[in-house]
Specification:
The chain is mostly helical. The protein contains six helices and two strands, in the order H-H-H-H-H-H-E-E. It folds into two domains: 64 residues, 434 Repressor (Amino-terminal Domain); 64 residues, no CATH class. A hairpin with a 4-residue loop joins strand 1 and strand 2. The termini are far apart. The mean pLDDT is 92.
């Protein structure tokens, strides 16, 4: 019988297709983690201030194998699993505005990496255009690392309630 994988108490399982920004925000808010900023986490891994850039979808230069190994070791994740939260080679990122499919978010509440691809027009699952601002108050969405409650930072409308305001594509 295979041995069960032992994870550290601060282990946070990534979601399928989750963006690195959203994942590290969830990781820092985990009860067993006492790190509140990306800079502190980067420093603990010995990789400089790169995590703050990654959380804003700035991958130039692209994360090195050494950086990924250092952060993977610190947080107890596989390097391959972290690499899945990064854009595939050749895929250009849209750093701003942050985009969201509220219908997807209502089903599973996390930011998908593919929403920030320049090549992504809308949600393929729901055939809806992505939102880049709150449809109620017009505030642009914060970076996913800061999505603590899954709501607009200005008017506090839940992301899932925005689905009815998404237009088809």
């Amino acid at each position: 019988m295979p041995e069960a994988v032992q994870h550290p108490p601060w282990y946070v399982e990534p979601n399928e297709g989750e963006s690195i920004s959203h994942y590290f925000g969830r990781f820092r808010r985990h009860e067993a983690v006492c790190v509140s900023s990306p800079g502190t986490l980067s420093k603990a891994a010995g990789i400089g201030p790169v995590l703050a850039r990654w959380e804003k979808f700035r991958f130039n230069p692209f994360p090195s194998e050494k950086e990924l190994e250092a952060i993977a070791k610190l947080i107890g994740l596989d390097v391959d699993r972290i690499a899945q939260m990064l854009p595939p080679k050749g895929e250009k990122m849209k750093m701003e505005p942050i985009r969201l499919c509220a219908a997807c978010y209502g089903e599973k509440s996390y930011h998908r990496l593919e929403w920030q691809f320049q090549s992504t027009v809308g949600c393929n699952s729901h055939k809806l255009r992505l939102l880049s601002e709150c449809p109620f108050c017009k505030e642009r969405f914060a970076i996913p690392a800061l999505w603590e409650n899954g709501e607009c930072k200005k008017c506090h409308a839940p992301f899932r309630s925005m689905a009815k305001r998404q237009k088809p594509y």
